[in-house]
From TrEMBL:
Signal peptide: none annotated. PANTHER family: REVERSE TRANSCRIPTASE DOMAIN-CONTAINING PROTEIN, RIBONUCLEASE H. The lineage of its organism: Eukaryota, Metazoa, Porifera, Demospongiae, Heteroscleromorpha. CDD domains: RNase_HI_RT_DIRS1. This is Reverse transcriptase RNase H-like domain-containing protein. It comes from the Eukaryota. It comes from Amphimedon queenslandica.
Amino acid sequence: MEGLHTLRDLLKERLDDQAGSEGCLLHDPYPKFQQTSATLFCTKPYLLIHILAFRSVLRSLGLFQDPEASTNPAQRAGSETCGIYRRHSCLGRDGGDGNGPYRRSYVSIGESGVHNPPRKGYYANPGDRILGMVVHLQTMELKLPGHKIKKLRQEATKIIKDQTATPMGRYVSRLLGKFNSVSQAVVQGPLFCGALQRDLASALGENEQCYNAPCPLSQAAIEELTWLTVWNGKSLILRQPDIQIESDASLIGWGATAHGHQTGGPWSREEKTLHINCFELLAATLTVKTFLKSQENKRVLLLLDNQTAVAYINNLGGTISAQATKIAKDLWMWCLERNNFLTAQHLPGKENVIADSESREMRDRSDWMLNPSIFRRIRAQFPYLEVDLFATRLTHQLPRFFSWRPDPIAEETDAFLQDWRQVKGYANPPGT
């Protein structure tokens, strides 16, 4: 069934946007592909390009129509403009003498790939609507129309204001349906309906799936209903990841690796009480915050060996575990504030070796923390202290601190690489 996902997939960066040679085999080393491919010779400069002999591929490149045989002047002009001469009308193998079904064609290319004919593109007017969404192809975004925003707000406000009566499950279900219908245009939409879904599921379970029964709402659901502002747009282009990160969790701590750097650390006393799935989500959160703290507008591929954590991240939460949903929501909100977008992917445990090792081996065994009551006495004597020079997210005594290894909230890494003259530092001596 066609939907917004179809439009999104059709507008990926391909040869239409001169994104490179994706879809073409340049000097392919495998003879079996060369034997079943069409050969095109380009003139600026001369490049040998092999295009696989599949009708769908050739049709997508517009190589089936002879511009001289076209009765449409606009199509003929567009074909001549892009410099592609289409004389191929059937599939077959070129014997190499230029007399086969695939005759040698001289194709004018641009600086970064073959130009597709202009008629292949969809030229939308500003504000065109597809499936109820406003499409902006210039910015590659979907926008939620104003009247839909107004209806969503009216539904949510009606339930919030009616404090004297518990809403029926039918009303909550209708609101959730509307949230779901716009989830592809409102990025953070699923982040603000998890508690509503859990409350509705609980009410239906207690009342034999009767939607006319009351649906008591928790405080978390009320807070979700107060959400009225949206980042009203979502990029349609699924860009290749800018950063690839691997993370893992154990009962001891968390570990991560990205672009040649590794880090990790132990769990706090409170964190050790969490479920293993929450361990994995928390490890992913700490990993993202460590390697993306100064990054914005990035597409991130996050590799995990826990299927549940992958699902909670990709679905922006879930309905089973409130704690896991909270961690996933915190992760997404942190990313969206920086316009970073996450995609989680499962990585088999046997391949997640580095992150797994980091989560089990606590290397900094000299990381001790001075008794907080004693530190408060020191701070009373030296109130001007600004930076804890040797600390971690679990042992820092001051809001600002330097860590030995990459840390999710540390200001800098490795105190010995920093200029101590610029800060008023406190150094806790290593334990013996």
